[in-house]
Design a protein that fits this description.
Structural class: alpha+beta
Shape: globular
Distance between the termini: 42 Å
Helix content: 25-40%
Number of helices: 3
CATH class: Alpha Beta
Number of domains: 1
Order of helices and strands: EEEHHHEEEE
CATH architecture: Roll
Radius of gyration: 15 Å
Number of strands: 7
Largest sheet: 4 strands, antiparallel
Strand order of the largest sheet: 4-5-6-7
Strand content: 25-35%
């Protein structure tokens, strides 16, 4: 049971809701919806967002080698802590900059090349945010976040 006002997260590809199998799968999100939801959850420090990233290839501002660092971890025991720490630090950095999730506007598909889709959003600083969504095994994953 969810607390008043809480909402359930659904894994659209598997029909999983909050880690439990569901008999009814929700429809898949568009790449724009998926990118926006993932970025907002990341910026808010939501630990459940970790499943949305392609960790082995992840590139983000200030930590362009995040995927390489993740891949070089010696064993799977260290990876959950890496993901948790990454989400916490990214969110803290964003919040300490004075920025807000509401500052991201006009989410749209910028380009598409096969299974790779670039989603863009406008920032208050005038530099667009780009989110690379890839499809792997019929699932959406984020492989890169950049500001250019």
């Amino acid at each position: 049971m969810l607390a008043c006002g809480a909402r359930s997260r659904s894994d659209s590809a598997t029909g999983t809701v909050n880690g439990n199998d569901s008999a009814v799968a929700r429809p898949a999100m568009t790449e724009v919806e998926f990118a926006r939801d993932t970025v907002e959850r990341l910026l808010n420090g939501d630990p459940t967002v970790e499943e949305a990233f392609e960790w082995e290839n992840l590139k983000v501002p200030g930590a362009a080698d995040a995927g390489e660092a993740y891949s070089e971890l010696p064993d799977d025991e260290n990876r959950p802590e890496f993901r948790k720490g990454f989400i916490e630090k990214f969110s803290e950095s964003f919040k300490s900059s004075g920025a807000s999730v509401a500052d991201l506007k006009n989410w749209r598909e910028q380009s598409r090349n096969g299974e790779t889709i670039i989603v863009a959003a406008d920032t208050t600083g005038g530099k667009p945010l780009f989110v690379t969504v890839v499809r792997r095994d019929k699932r959406q994953k984020i492989s890169e976040i950049s500001i250019k």
